[in-house]
Amino acid sequence: MWAPGAAVAVALVALIAWSVWQRWQLVSASPFPLGVDGYFYSIELRSLLAHGELQYPASPLAFYLLAPFAAATDPIIGVKLGAAVFGAAIAVPAYGVGARLGGGRGAGLIAAVLATTSVGSAYLTIEFVKNGIGLTVALAALWLALRAGERATWGRIAAAAAGLGAAYATHKMAAAIVVIVAIPAVLAGAATSGALRGRRLVYALGGALAVACAALGLGAAFPQRLLSAGDAALLRDLVSATPRWTAPALVFPGGELALGHDALLGLGLGLAGVAAFAIRARRAARLPADQRHSSAPASGPAAGPASGSGPAASPAAAASTAAAWPIIGLAILIGLPFLAVTDRQGLGLRLRIAAFVPAALAAAIVARGVLARYAHRDAVLAALAVALAVVRQPGDRLDGEIVTHPALVAAAQALNGHVPAGATLIVPERHIAFMVAWYTGAAVAIRPDRVPPARRYRLLPLHFIVADSPLDHALLAARAEPSLEPPLGVHPSHPNGLVLVAEPTWDWILARLPAADRARLVAWPTL
Q: What angle do CA 9, 118, 84 make, to 5 degrees?
């Protein structure tokens, strides 16, 4: 009986090793940090290793997980290596959750392969490292929660609580996914087993309420670090009046960011999952009353926890069913064409990039529904998983990948010695802001609102200035005005490629611009 388990272990190790290698090829193509927040992660790790704390407020656990990689190499390579490892490691918890939702090892392998080989997962390794690590932690927490729902021992409950805490401390989206999926699963399993009755039910509800209040309190105290009630405001802009039938992750002036259409795959699998549950319910309704809660034959040791044929055949079946519905709902929601995907910082973009997670788990649910009565389903699904692992490859370069240009690095390094003590650089783009903070150690801000005018120095990149624009000409004219601190161009190939401007000089420039340009710049558009 040990052979199937050993084969699965070998397959997962091979899948993770192959995925780590592929991701490393992507992230090591440039010697500089990649992604819009690449330098942010390196700054945080540099501060954590040097001072034992993060420089900027953020959910902390991801950085502590990356710290050993940074300590063994450096804060730039460490982020890349850790992102590749933890991104590929999603195969293990995806397998664990998929095997329980899908009723066997084959379904678990399908979920592991879809999650690991997804273009969205590879994109998170480059662009949103903390988000990628958070999804791996979230699936691990879901696996622990499903185990607790199967058999609510104190050890399993403690492990599930620890998993929820880890997700909460890693990423806000990870925490939200675990809360939405895991809590119904644990409650359904415990209720079916009879563990939540009488006083224990009252104690459980009281404990859950106390934990929820504590989580809300921590979120209110540390809104930039932890999931909080204020994050619910992101839901207001989640829906768009303009449908986009190709389900892009992001729509921007130059085109669309597709990311392999994981959202459409999840939508299809989610709808198939609904159909599978409907068919299963009809079959159960046709059975005699004394057979409706019996268990279907298992196809191996991993099949038992989710192999019930009735709506509440066992605590394990109840827990997996309760977890399956929010997963299916999430897959359908993310794939709907009315999701708002025009904001680079919006919730719609983050959900679309993470679409591979509910899609992978929905595939396991569908596999169980389609092949529930087939004796060799694990073998068939394992063969399909191998084929998917071979066919699904992220490619040498990802669409939408942000690569750091060497000339921009040279410009940021040239600022050393030119930023006055106590000054705060107001930079309209996060990528450049963190790059400058890395190379100069200067304080940076995206918006000027909370920085006193006496401390403001504007740092203007060329795409913000726009070549041959009124602002471009005004910057050149300001250099010839003897009463001003002249703008300082530090870009190696363009006088206004990256320009440092003192606040009095900026005011002088704004006063000489046409009204439309002045209004746009006073509003200070940011990326």
A: 70
- What are the structure tokens assigned to 488, written together? 């300082």
pLDDT in tens, 248-278: 998 887 778 888 889 999 999 999 999 988 8
Residue 501 near residue 508 (C-beta atoms within 8 A): no
Angle at the Cα of 89 from the Cα atoms of 174 and 120, rounded to 5 degrees = 60
Give per-residue pLDDT as tens, 92-133.
999 999 999 999 999 999 999 999 999 999 999 999 999 999
Q: Report residue 509 CA to chain centroid gap.
A: 41
* Rounded Cα–Cα distance for residues 103 and 323 (Å): 13
Domain boundaries in the chain? 15-227+252-391, 406-523
User: What is the structure's pLDDT at 296?
Assistant: 41
Contact 449, 457 (CB under 8 A): no
Q: What is the pTM of this model?
A: 0.90
Cα angle for residues 516, 521, 524 (degrees, 5° grid): 135
Please say whether the dihedral angle defined by the alpha carbons of residues 60, 66, 71 and 75, taken in this order, is positive or negative. Answer: negative
**H helices within 151-198, ranges in order?**
154-168, 172-193
> Are 377 and 371 spatial neighbours (Cβ–Cβ below 8 Å)?
yes
What is 17-78 written as a DSSP string?
HHHHHHHHHHHTTSSS--STTHHHHHHHHHHHHHHSS-SS---SHHHHHHHHHHHHS-HHHH
CA contacts within 13 A on the Cβ side of 244: 23
Angle separating helix axes 406-414 and 430-440, nearest 10 degrees = 50
DSSP symbol at 229: G
Is it the case that residue 194 has pLDDT exceeding 70?
A: yes
- Count the Cβ atoms, other than its own, within 10 Å of residue 331: 31
322-378 pLDDT, tens digit each: 999 999 999 999 999 999 998 888 899 999 999 999 999 999 999 988 887 777 889
- What amino acid occupies position 423? A
